[in-house]
Design brief:
The chain has 447 residues and is α/β, with parallel strands linked by helices. The protein folds into three domains: 205 residues, FAD/NAD(P)-binding domain; 109 residues, FAD/NAD(P)-binding domain, CATH 3.50.50.60; 109 residues, FAD/NAD-linked reductase, C-terminal dimerisation domain (Enolase-like, domain 1, 2-Layer Sandwich), CATH 3.30.390. The chain has a five-stranded mixed β-barrel. The N and C termini lie far apart (65 Å). Bound molecules: flavin-adenine dinucleotide and nicotinamide-adenine-dinucleotide. The site of nicotinamide-adenine-dinucleotide (NAD) has 24 residues, from helix 6, strand 9 and strand 17. InterPro entries: FAD/NAD-bd_sf (IPR036188), FAD/NAD-binding_dom (IPR023753), FAD/NAD-linked_Rdtase_dimer_sf (IPR016156), Pyr_nuc-diS_OxRdtase (IPR001100), Pyr_nucl-diS_OxRdtase_dimer (IPR004099).
Length: 447
Amino acid sequence: MRHYQALIIGFGKAGKTLAGFLAAQGWQVALVEQSAQMYGGTCINIACIPTKSLVHSAETGRPYAEAIAEKNRLTSFLRGRNLANLTSHPEATLLLGQAAFVNERQVRVHLLETDEEVLVEADHIFINTGAVPRLPPIPGLRESQRVFTSTSLMEQTVLPERLVIIGGGFIGLEFASMYAQFGAAVTVLESGPRLLPHEDEDMAAAIRQMLESKGITFLEGVQVQQIEPGIAHDTVVLQDAQGATQRLSASAVLVAVGREPVVASLNLPAAGVTQDARGFIQVNERLQTNVPHIWALGDVNGGPQFTYISLDDYRIVRDQLFGAGQRTTADRQHVASTVFLTPPLAHVGLREREARAQGYQVRVATMPAAAITRAQVLQEPVGLLKAVIEEGTGRILGCTLFCADAGEVINTVQLAMKAGVRYEVLRDNIYIHPSMTEALNDLFGKV
Ligand SMILES: Cc1cc2nc3c(=O)[nH]c(=O)nc-3n(C[C@H](O)[C@H](O)[C@H](O)COP(=O)(O)OP(=O)(O)OC[C@H]3O[C@@H](n4cnc5c(N)ncnc54)[C@H](O)[C@@H]3O)c2cc1C
Ligand SMILES: NC(=O)c1ccc[n+]([C@@H]2O[C@H](COP(=O)([O-])OP(=O)(O)OC[C@H]3O[C@@H](n4cnc5c(N)ncnc54)[C@H](O)[C@@H]3O)[C@@H](O)[C@H]2O)c1
């Protein structure tokens, strides 16, 4: 039996940051990770970083096989750096193995390298086991050799000729955009009635037009019924929005219909930790489970699935253990997001339609990306910018930027919203020229 002050299950963003912090405070910390290929967690190994490396390679014209090699170099480098960061703390112990609860204080770890089992007891336990792709119950899907998840598709060194993507959300659109840019013929199948259902009509049309100009085909309101294996290709059988049967030939199928929590291996009932109806671990606004000394952080707790949210989960726990204990999930207003298309789509706050539906009197400003000098310099004149302002108060209610560097520029708008800055401040601020951020002068000048 080994005893630690803190046991962290999973090497994710929250877990690794918390491990380093607690060890630096002098706590004896154990971090358990089930795979040596996952040191540093999902983001750096199989998610944010490899996908953005591929997006960048596609944008710069690097051939697919070379892009995969560069992605592998980068993730390997980051994995090593994450491992070194953790092991540089003498108080932190890394256990390579799978953790499962024995009771609410004890966890059994099956060590990968020696095949031994060790029993670990801890005063505080933090679950950070993440999420994995959800596989819908489509006949033939699990059996097919040509069906991939985001993880396994990025392991392929040969570009699929015809890629069919099931799901038109974050992963579906990012992969559609980059694989089309690498030269694949891409079709996206979305079960919802409309692609980008949250976006205002004008914004959705602009994004769709850009994606279609790359040769991507979208079918909405479809139901995928079967994947039929074939010798040279698989056939995706679907019912389209009109109820007709369509058959699409695919050299690869990507499933991207959402991600589900990693909980099965944990034996949660032994600890008495409860889950919600979707299987995510139930937590309060301080991320405590129903067992007070057990917390759940990151994707596994059912919050928004972003690395920066997992990092903020760490901040909430840190504040309880070493701060004023005031920080909660309720403090998270105006969290921005970016879909890394080319150009990217970044958003914060309310869309026009959402603001009106909530009863706000609004003033709306829109501007084409082609009007931004920096976008012309970059030869990326495609896109649309939009801001929603509350009539009378001048409060920024929301902003959507579909343009080069949108994921950078949105951070300025987000910070302004958080600080309660009126739109005129962004309108009249002095920005670097020529930069994409200076488009905020013109965008807010149109309010
Ligand atoms: C393709 C893709 C692209 C994405 N792009 C972005 C992006 O650009 N920006 C963004 O913010 N977010 C992005 N995300 C989401 C982001 O990756 C996740 O929200 C984030 O990585 C979640 O991290 P986490 O802290 O929950 O834990 P994770 O990083 O998922 O770590 C969980 C770890 O726990 C380990 N584990 C699980 N069970 C056990 C067990 N029983 N014992 C021991 N170890 C265990 C796993 O092996 C894993 O290493 C993307 C996701 C995907 C799939
Ligand atoms: N840039 C980023 O920040 C980034 C990038 C990738 C992923 N992520 C995170 O990872 C999460 C998971 O991504 P995702 O794309 O898997 O999920 P998602 O929830 O973003 O999108 C899933 C899509 O699949 C559709 N769908 C569901 N079932 C379907 C079916 N049977 N047939 C066809 N379509 C179906 C849904 O209507 C939805 O549009 C995201 O929600 C996001 O939080 C973030």
